[in-house]
Amino acid sequence: MVPRDLIDTAEVPGGDPLRLFRRGSDFMIVLDRNELMNSRMSGSEEALAEMTIDRLRVPAPHLLIGGYGMGFTLRAALKRLDGDARVTVSELVPKIIDWARGPMAELAAGCLDDRRVEVVLDDVGAMIRHGRGGYDAILLDVDNGPDGLTRPGNDGLYSMRGLAAARAALRTGGVLAIWSAAPDAVFARRLRDADFAVEEVGVKARSNGKGPRHVIWFGTKR
User: Fold this and answer.
1) Is the pLDDT score of 100 beyond 90?
2) What is the rounded CA–CA span in Å between residue 172 and residue 48?
């Protein structure tokens, strides 16, 4: 077994620290004993971007991605979008971006320097609250989904107030896409109660169709 080496630690505002590990050519971001991200599991994060863009009906959309993670969602989006599209990436933890430009630069493959991309070091909840009618899609891969792990402050994203703010930040026909590590029937009902047309899709963690089953909700603003 190749040993797992600790590369760095990142402080999370209002939460426990994240640790970046490397084992051979693979990277892992870990919270306490929970592995939040692994560079070998990208399928559901890529599907978050691809399936959202498939649901949009505008030629050059503006996407807000909440949580850079390891950049799988951003890179998948850039492959699907044309040159006039815009992608704003909101990342609360500056070291996540430092890791993407440093030890994980090969994995990032220059996506943060794409001219269509703007990186904002801020809470995605704040950006949603100030983005009234500004986005064609909001993609949230924050804190493992509605049943969060990293910081209690993220719970507000998935409350009725948070969903109302997301709806207000979307243009008509816009899509709120939410990644989750597991199903959550209570949250799915809440999303419908927030006046979204809701579709729930199960996706596999790995791009080869293997691994754990994750969930993506697509809420369309009517």
Assistant:
1) yes
2) 20
Q: What is the pLDDT of residue 1?
A: 72
Amino acid at 15: G
Q: Which amino acid is at 7?
A: I
* Sheet architecture: strand order including 135-140: 117-120, 86-90, 62-66, 135-140, 170-180, 213-221, 196-204
Spell out the long-range contacts of 95-102 with Cβ–Cβ below 8 A and sequence spacing 24 or more: 95/8, 95/10, 95/11, 95/18, 96/10, 96/18, 96/29, 96/68, 96/69, 97/68, 97/121, 99/7, 99/8, 99/10, 99/20, 100/68, 100/70, 100/71
Quick check: pTM over 0.90? yes
Q: Which single residue is written with the structure tokens 């791009």?
A: 207
Query: Which of 217, 216, 169 shows the shortest CA–CA distance to 64?
Result: 169
